[in-house]
Batch of 2 targets.
Target 1
Amino acid sequence: MSNQSHKPHVFLNMAMSLDGKISTRDGTGPRFTGSADKVRLREIRTRADAILVGAGTIFADDPTFTEDGIYKDERVKRGLSPQPIKVVVSGTGSVPESALMFQPNGAPALVFTTKRIPANRLKILDSVADDVHIVGDEAVDFPQIVEILARTYGVKNLLIEGGGQVNFAMFREHLIDEIYLTLSPRIIGGRDVPTPVGGAGFNFIDLIELELLDHHVVGSEIFLHYRVCS
Ligand SMILES: NC(=O)c1ccc[n+]([C@@H]2O[C@H](COP(=O)([O-])OP(=O)(O)OC[C@H]3O[C@@H](n4cnc5c(N)ncnc54)[C@H](OP(=O)(O)O)[C@@H]3O)[C@@H](O)[C@H]2O)c1
């Protein structure tokens, strides 16, 4: 742990169907993408000191965040820890204690929650997480999360992996610097199937502007990389 407090570089990675969905009707998450996307996800993770998701993503996808093989080696070559710090945002503490992210893998598992968390949930999550931080009354304070990750855990590169609610909150606070988006040649449909950015949405005057930095195509899948213009 270190005492750095400058804002980390924050990058977001998501995969989306051609009609703008990030999961399927039956809740299978980003499984709809091809093998090149799975490789790109692992490569992007090799640059992250920490990976942050919302409780909804833990419920839906239950990621381990554990890297192995060439991806673990690449992290070490870059001077990062072998495994990224695992971070979940859960305002009510609903994130299940059985989640794979809480299984020890050498990296800390952190929970950011609010004063709304019931005492019993706080106690349970305290027993499975390395640290539980209360950062807000009703909603979590995302700038404070980023600040704590930098100051207390030395995070310089923070990867956001959804879901839509967390992504919206991060954009609203202007905390995201870069976006990696995979456009998958699939139609999923469904009014209630989540999209990359949920929440309340932005008014015209507040739209987030992006600049395309790079793109490439593998088969019918398109890989996009944007910078967020401030
Ligand atoms: N295609 C992809 O690349 C991809 C990637 C990731 C996820 N996904 C999909 O995205 C879906 C999940 O997205 P989602 O939007 O439903 O959930 P989410 O953003 O992952 O998590 C939402 C939860 O996070 C907590 N949270 C978020 N913002 C908060 C705030 N401001 N204050 C306090 N707590 C806050 C709350 O937890 P509590 O309820 O505990 O308070 C909330 O219920 C799943 O279907 C998943 O498969 C797709």
Target 2
Amino acid sequence: MDVQSFYLGAAYLLAAVLGLCVGSFLNVVIYRVPAGMSLATPSSHCPKCKYVLRWYDNIPVLSYLILGGKCRSCHAKISFRYTAVEIANMLLWLLSALLFWQVNIAYAVICALASSVFVCVFFIDLEHKLVFDRFVLMLIALGIAAAVVDPYYSALSHIIGGVAGFAAFYLIAWLFERIRHKDGLGGGDIKLTGACGLLLGWQRLLFAVLCAAVVASVVLIVLSRVKGEEDTEYPFAPFLTCGFAVAMFFGHRIISAYLSLLGI
Ligand SMILES: [Zn+2]
């Protein structure tokens, strides 16, 4: 093995391990931000018996497996969601490294951080139907950085994406409210799409929103058939964040394949 591929392998391994540890922290964020709790204190504890987790109870994935998904003290069941968040974040960080490390390291880091924000928005909106401004602000900051270093699309594309994403979703929400006299899109969805337009550029934003709309339509039709309720409000941000993530990782390839198919 030559030196270069050794370093590359080390970078991928590091991305996966760091992703796992950050994923563990994201669980704290997902649990505490909607509850208005501090991220630093108190130490992680069992919600049922208040047993304070020791360091060896808090090792990503491993502790869950060793403890058999139960609290060490009271044996209450621990939700698999915690482990799912850790694994998801690990895979997203690994994917960021695999796809972009050799292209542009700064861009790979931006994608890894943005995908962690997506994980938080996904799970918090799913449970609480809320998109918190602090995540939108983080995505705007990452979007500004992405506009500067993006190897695929120009800074202008990012600026247009930000403005168009916000304006288009604002308009759709306004029209929906006018016609149906109820809220279709939340203010959180509008701000989130604007921020991700800045992050992705308008081409990938368009692709992301199309993906989200198609998947949301299919899932919501199936859900309304199964449950038989028409007027239930479903959170849209989980679909959006999935669309944004797919577009961020694969959008440039899919878009250029599509354009070459059209002969453009
Ligand atoms: Zn317990």
